[in-house]
Amino acid sequence: MAIDKTAGTAPGAMIGLSADGTEASAPKILAFCCNWCTYTGADLAGLNRMKYPANVRVVRVPCSGRVNPQFILRAFQKGADGVMVCGCHPGDCHYATGNYFTRRRFMLMRNLLEFNGIDPKRFHARWISGSEAAKFRDTIAEVAAQVSALGPNTRYREER
Amino acid sequence: MNKNEQQQKMRETAARLLDAGEAAYVIGFGETRFPEKTSILFAHNAEEADRFVWNDACVQSLAKYLLEDRFADYRVGIFARGCESRAINRMIKDNQFKRDHVHILGIPCEGVNAKRCASCAVHNPVVYDELLWDAVPEPNPETARFARAEAVEAMGPEERYAYWSDVYSRCIRCYACRQACPVCSCRECYVDMDRQGFQGKRHSVSDNQTFGVTRAFHVADRCIECGECERVCPMGLPILGQTQKIIKDITQLSGDYQAGMNAEDGNFLGAFDLDDKDDFM
Known about the structure:
Chain A has helices at 38-47, 69-77, 98-115, 133-150; strands at 29-34, 56-61, 82-87, 123-127.
């Protein structure tokens, strides 16, 4: 995928506006990736020159257990169309048990979002290990396709 | 025993406790100028204890007032119904104070407020130092436990979003729900922190909604379903539905779940099971 070097510097690009001030049509996906597994997996995907949709913004967190459910809400408020939380597979956590807490927390959070009218396709939690570059690529492609199909998220969006 | 006799018994017991120096003060209900309203009364001596009242206007939860003095080196007496006793258990579990910090005067109660007590399933205190009168039969609540959550679940996604947007468009962010909630025990609440980034301070539907969801998630597995949040809401918003939904999901995952039934169990989010399902992923 060609990299548009001007995209990042255009006014408003950082908040998802294209040069003429209208909203970019491509969905924005925020992925919280754990430093030890998924971030390394994403790194490996890059090293292997794998291609995946450029809609994803990766935020590196020390552990998927670091992700506060409030981050998800804040992301939707600030313009994300989809949010992902990715961490090590159960049993592989660098801190031994962090992702077990993540699992419970985001099971409840996902249901609560659905209960509040957010489409569950906009929120994903996934286990992706450091060697699963292909899984990272496929997951991003899958989530991007789902979120694109839903269109831009207006729910919880902050009025500017 | 009718309510007048019960009130007399409460006054006598509190006076005895205070005279014996077993508690620095006793928390209960006192009279106000209005017959349909009661206030919280902190009785420090037998004379003051004679002003305790017990009637159908005693709707407030007393348990929250224990947090005011959670670090005190003296004991505090409190009248506790089912809901208050569960709140006390929850506070002990959350390490707010030790069990012997409170002297619990158990008062079995058959419900005081039609709205708040409609779905109450715990009339008798689950923890107490002494029970003031005989336990009452536990009810079969007229309203199903998760009635509010189920009503919203039955809607479609569009309707659900419209429903909660409408609810939170009326929210005035007074934080009365937080103030009254017996399990909201943080010394400083995140909504009061002025440099905390992820909760918008503006009065907008978006910020109100995120506040509502976050508040529910903060109490999540600790909610004792007393309904104080809804009772104190000046806008009358049905916000208990949010926590009901969370408890319902917990119930589906780990079997029957009721916070505050004892001081040991009830730590869903702070614990894990290796066999937890991840089919949502």
